[in-house]
Amino acid sequence: MSGFSRTVWLVLRKDFTVEVRSLEIAYTMLFFAVSCVLIFAFALVQEGRAPEGGAAGILWIAVAFAGTLALGRTFERERQSETLRALLLAPAARPAVYVGKLLGIVALLLAAEMLLVPLVALLFQAPLLAHPVWLALILVTGTIGFAAVGTLFAAMLVRARSRDVLLPVLLYPITVPVIIAGVRATAALLQPEMDAAVIRFWLALLVTFDVVFVTLSLWTFEPLMTD
Amino acid sequence: MKKWFMPAVIVCGLMFAIAPVLIAGAPYESTMGLVQKIFYVHLPSAWTFLLAAIICGVASVRYLFGGAARQDRLAWAAAELVVLFGAITLVTGPLWARKAWGVWWQWDVRLTASLMGWMVAVAYLMLRRYGGPGSDKLAAGLALFGMANVPFIYISVNYWRTIHPTTNVVPTLPTSFGVPLWFSAVSFLLLFVLLLRVRVRLEEQRAKLDAMYLSMDA
Amino acid sequence: MIRLALLVVMFAPILGVRGAGAAGDSVASTFVRGAGPAGDLIASTGGPAVMLAQQPPPQQQDEFIPIDELPAQDQLPAAPLLVAAYSFVVLALFAYVVSVGRRLGRVQQEMERLESDLKRGGRT
Fold first, then answer.
1. Which of A2, A153, C29, C31 has the fewest Cβ atoms within 10 Å of its own Cβ atom?
2. Both C59 and C88 in a single domain?
3. Residue A31 pLDDT > 80
4. Is C75 close to B27, i.e. CB distance below 8 A?
5. What integer pLDDT is reported at residue A215 of this predicted model?
6. Which band of pLDDT confidence, cut at 50, 70 and 90, is reported for residue C73?
7. What Rg value do the Cα atoms of chain C yield, rounded?
8. Facing B35 at nearest CB: one of C36, C78, C108
9. Nearest of A172, A174, A176 to residue A217 by alpha carbon
């Protein structure tokens, strides 16, 4: 077990060190996410009024889009420097490599959400920060679910042709439950009186999704990454 | 081709020739009238769609965990039929719904789950078509995840909204409706088996061709 | 919302429709379960009218495009929809069979060509 967590930590630290050196993915993804929200604001805010209930959807769309970009870039970098091959050749447990990658992506997305939430709250006049704990729970579970599938697919696609287009094509149909649950839970949070039962249902669904898909990914990462 | 194939094609052709007569002869359903006759193709194609999806998923999982290339060919063939029968289901459904519900589309559980399943199958085919070498394993992984996703889509959309005739209406159908429906269902099933066989055959021939090219190079 | 409920109630005896709030964000779903015995299927023409009378008038729709007036079956001619459905089925199946046939033919052709090439190559 200690070997497993050590590998996870090493993979995570490696990604972090590489990212900190240039901050390429972080900056591009953040800027992309912000432009995404701005485009929605231009498209939907009319006469200074935001559409009712739009904030939750826009927040999650921005997360999904930015997440796809981050996933693609992270693994593109690995591919260009042939490091993923080296990583997989190393005598390390494959699932540990996956978990390390997953944690890196989740951290990156959570950082983006910290910027996105205030921005959406501001532009769409939504009381997103009224219940910070609930919101954090929804965002964390939703992000893990999205990234769990995304990390596996992005890793698989490293060897495929036209991987840039294929990633969203494969990822979005599979992550529909996450998006529905995330948007509905966030929308319930934005109601004048918060409906805790509804949020709890969606959170339970998100947690189940996370558990099932992380388990499945750990289980299939080995056969999928073997040539 | 196997011995059973040509007789089966003839039987299937005959069944598809008889089916319209049976469907036309069935009595009009009282409130929906003529449009209800869409059910005789909608329901069987939906069942075939589901069957194809299950075959694709099971074959993919078997292929992923050390299965033979045969499983992969079966999965690919089944995925194409998922797209075909899914398209039929998803087109005939709204045509019925326009009349019966007054809308083309509803975000109901079955509709949404079918649409998502169909999209996963389309993504599967795109991956096979454009993914390049090694996409067989990736596609198998996608099929596995697509299968695992179905209950989540069901639960999430069910909690979100629902309107669809439940399946428990089928056994209660009187024979005048039931006979054409079951006849149509058996026709679709037979057609599915035949198409699957032909499609697998295509993949087998392709594999043979590749082997020939390889032996030439060697 | 209400009109949809009306529709659902109308069809409930025939189909055993399980209807729910399809519009808005209402999560609480009302289940309208039709008894749906076989006999009702044909002889329930009186049913909808009675049920209609009991419903409150339609108020507003949030989500779907409503049909202008009830009952729905008098609204749209069914024949074009039916024809469209069946012709789509026939066309889709036909197109698929043709496509598989062509692909199979092409592979077969290439195999034959390759085989003859191999034979010729072998002799010389």
1. A2
2. no
3. yes
4. no
5. 93
6. very low
7. 27
8. C78
9. A174
Q: What is the ipTM of this complex?
A: 0.86
Interatomic CA distance for residues B100 and C48, integer angstroms: 14
Task: Please state, rounded to an integer, the average pLDDT across all residues of chain B.
Answer: 84
pLDDT score for A207: 95
Mark whether C50 and C31 lie in a shared domain: yes
What 3-state DSSP class applies to A49?
Answer: strand
What confidence category does residue A175 fall into, taking pLDDT thresholds of 50, 70 and 90?
Answer: very high
Same domain, C25 and C38: yes
- Nearest C-alpha of chain C: how many angstroms from A177? 16
* b/e map C88-112, b = 16+ CB within 10 Å: bbeebbeebeeebeebbeebeeeee
C11 and C64 housed in the same domain: yes
**Residue A185, token pair as written in the block:** 């839970």
Residues C83 and C121 in one domain: yes
Query: What is the extent of the structural domain holding B70?
Result: 40-164+175-211
| Residue C46 lies in domain | 2-74
A120, A149 in Cβ contact below 8 A? Answer: no
- Asked whether residue B30 is assigned to any structural domain, the reply reads no
Quick one: C59 and C102 in the same domain? no
**Mutation site for A-interface testing, chosen from C26, C27, C62, C63 by largest number of A Cβ within 10 Å:** C27
Structural domains of chain B, count: 1
> pLDDT of B143-189, one tens digit each?
999 888 888 887 877 777 655 555 555 666 666 667 888 888 999 99
**Residue entry with tokens 């920060």:** A129
**Strand, helix or coil for residue A189:** helix
Q: What is the C-alpha separation between A185 and C94, in angstroms, rounded? A: 45
